[in-house]
Write a structure and sequence with these properties.
There is one protein chain. The chain is mainly α. It has one domain: ABC transporter involved in vitamin B12 uptake, BtuC, CATH 1.10.3470. The protein is built from 14 helices and no strands. Helix 4 runs antiparallel to helix 7 and helix 13 crosses helix 14. The protein starts with a helix and ends in a 6-residue tail after the last helix.
Length: 324
């Protein structure tokens, strides 16, 4: 099944290059790929579609894996990567960048978002560690919800008081792959790669923690270290995706549920499958948004919100979700 998911990711990546709001015939796109020049087709393909596809690959893989790691650590099938306050921290940092420093370009905004996401996640873990609750997923989830609410309140205060901040936040918070240059992609790739490495290093711990913290200890697992590695992975992956494309929901929540019936609950298969299917879902939603929105397009975050919620409800009602 991993090969099937890889095929889906490849097909959606190809579709992302072939189709867009700028109507180019398929032969024109293929010719531009083979004979790159300075014509309009080459400019669109290499200047817009390929970077956008690359960003979709990074974002989809990050959110898919982050969701699987998050659900594995919390043992909560409704856990989302944003639960640790990552999205809220990134959003507040973007608003502060605009309000206090006049930052508007995505090349600089991405660094504010990364910093805010990481600081928020560290704050959540620090609060939990202060209460000696790191062995259990419940204090982590509660601390994440509390920090997210606090950061969202600060964000709301700033955007309601400053029109420029509201405009920047409105464009960022919807979640989009458009308008990002190659520099944004390379800015987040190191964080994404580091997060993916930590996630795969956390594979054995995730399987052991699925049996419960006490059982994991009896199997020789250092629960505190496992939690730290898992939190670091979730933070880096979600921060990279959120900083580059804004908060994109649904992917991290539903992707693990879609792959488990096909690959089982072992995380050595769940993680790569989640990465590949996450890529396919994000790119497919982006292509749909380009085709149905005309020149203006419909942002990928909106498409996923519109089709993702009802789709997840149908899955939950019509088929049994594999237990964590």
């Amino acid at each position: 099944m991993i090969a099937v998911f890889a095929g889906l990711a490849a097909v959606t990546a190809l579709a992302s290059v072939l189709f867009g709001s700028n109507h180019l015939s398929m032969p024109a796109v293929v010719d531009a790929l083979i004979h790159r020049g300075s014509d309009e087709a080459s400019t669109i393909v290499f200047g817009v579609r390929i970077p956008r596809t690359m960003l979709g690959i990074v974002v989809g893989a990050c959110l898919g894996v982050a969701g699987a790691v998050m659900q594995g650590h919390t043992r909560n099938s409704l856990a989302d990567p944003g639960l640790f306050g990552v999205s809220a921290g990134a959003g507040l940092a973007v608003v502060i960048g605009v309000y206090a420093f006049g930052v508007v370009g995505t090349g600089i905004t991405v660094w504010f978002a990364l910093a805010g996401a990481i600081i928020a996640s560290v704050a959540v873990f620090s609060i939990t560690a202060a209460g000696s609750g790191t062995a259990s997923p419940v204090p982590l989830a509660l601390a994440g919800a509390a920090v997210s609410a606090l950061l969202d309140a600060f964000t709301s205060y700033i955007v309601l008081a400053d029109k420029d901040s509201l405009q920047a936040y409105r464009l960022w918070v919807v979640g989009s792959l458009s308008g990002r240059d190659v520099g944004v992609i390379w800015s987040v790739v190191p964080f994404a790669v580091a997060g993916l490495l930590l996630a795969f290093l956390n594979t054995r711990a995730l399987d052991n923690l699925g049996l419960g913290s006490d059982m994991a200890r009896s199997l020789g697992e250092n629960v505190l270290v496992a939690r730290i590695v898992g939190l670091a992975s979730i933070t880096l992956l979600t921060a990279a995706a959120t900083a580059a494309a804004g908060p994109i929901g649904f992917v991290g929540l539903v992707i693990p549920h879609l792959v488990r019936p096909f690959v089982g609950t072992g995380h050595r298969f769940v993680l790569p499958a989640s990465a590949l299917l996450g890529i396919a879902l994000v790119l497919a939603a982006d292509v749909v948004g380009r085709l149905i929105g005309g020149v203006a397009e419909v942002q990928v975050g909106i498409v996923l919100a519109l089709i993702g919620g009802p789709f997840f409800v149908v899955i939950a009602r019509r088929r049994s979700l594999v237990a964590l």
